[in-house]
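Re: the multi-chain job from yesterday

Posting the exact lines I submitted so nobody has to dig through the queue logs.
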Amino acid sequence: MGYRNVSKEEKKPSQSLKQIVYEDLKRRIISCEILPGTQLTEEILCEQLKASRTPVRDALSRLEQEQLLTIHPKKGIFVNTVSLANVSELFEARLRIEPYAVQYYGNRIGDDVYVECIRRFESETRKSRELYRLDDEFHQMFIDATRNRYLIMFYNTVRDQTMRYRVLSAMERRLFDSQAEHREVAMQCLRGNWERAAEAMRSHIENSKISILDYVMHQNRDAKNIFAATDIPAEAPET
Amino acid sequence: MGYRNVSKEEKKPSQSLKQIVYEDLKRRIISCEILPGTQLTEEILCEQLKASRTPVRDALSRLEQEQLLTIHPKKGIFVNTVSLANVSELFEARLRIEPYAVQYYGNRIGDDVYVECIRRFESETRKSRELYRLDDEFHQMFIDATRNRYLIMFYNTVRDQTMRYRVLSAMERRLFDSQAEHREVAMQCLRGNWERAAEAMRSHIENSKISILDYVMHQNRDAKNIFAATDIPAEAPET
DNA sequence: TTGACAAATGTTGTATACAACATTATAATG
DNA sequence: CATTATAATGTTGTATACAACATTTGTCAA
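And the result, structure tokens for all chains:
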């Protein structure tokens, strides 16, 4: 069920169709089931998501604001591409927030929570699905501790984007290093060494960034032309 | 025409009705022409903005994501209230970004721009409208210099929120101190003292925060019950 | 073949009717 | 009078038809 202090965002008034459509489409984009650069049309989405254009358009509007796609008026809807520049921007944004959250708000999280985190990071789960979830919850925990709605909102956007890269680069191996780094953060928190905890988080994020950048630069053989040289806002095909 | 390096956001494909409606409604909320806590209904907005529900709903969806209003399904739409806690969150967010932008990306801005800034901040314009514009552009300039789409996007949201407080507290007097602080930032930038420039920006933001918090706490006589004790996401009237 | 023009197609933008739910008012009942 | 049941109203959610614009295709002439 996740740690304490974890986001209450798991709202379940999700009964509404527009919410279902939004979450479903977002999941498909983040998981790269729909690849970067893909053109979407409302009509096809309506069929696939089994809804009319109204809730679909609502979802599209939100996803555009979250930088996951771009709507070119009267032309089409394109899933935003990913790029080296984009990775840098994402991790720079994370570095602005996460170490700060750890250093100044980590003390809002109970020792028992840290103990539990450490325990989990030591257990040898092999299911990457599970490890990813732990990873996400660990980072989210610190952001939520700031209790700052703007930082939380901002982090949501950045986190979702980061997930796309995680899927694309399929960094299974990185996962285990990542767990060790998480444990280091949690242990420093447990000792009340907030500066060191922040530093540990900083280098953890740097390592993740390097790992992804490294992958993106060296991907070549099975590369699917996913990583664009251009920047994110997907361009409509020039005519 | 503003400084160089200033946001290119002034897109003018704003022909579309939904864009016009969005900008108009957003302006009304930011300028507090529509007061915090107000309940809106789509029908009334349609009349006022002379559009059908489709573009109006589109605008409402975007404004909800920007934390300017909250849509309670099947109940109503409420302009988010403002509060002490909210001011703190806003300025904390700004402190995460702005000094950083100054320190690490201020050198991307030409000396001539800083000279021009200083000149303008010294001229004794009395029109607060004009001063506000200079103020906004000055801060935006540094954010844009980061060329980080996520930081820029985030700052947009925070900036708009800040404007609401500016209007509510009508801090005319603060404006002049503010200009002097801006000049200090620009001068440190011109000298290449990026750390000092960042520090100047930091204290400038702190001062703005204090000014607003001070106003909010002492506002009493002409207070219009605008500042809620509760937090931003406007609650639907409990029943 | 090339070019220009026109028609057809694809796609989103906008308006509107109706459905679903929440709240309030009303009336009936004890 | 108090309480409950029921109807009326208000508000957003959803579906769909049509309009506006962009692109592509096709036709015809030079």
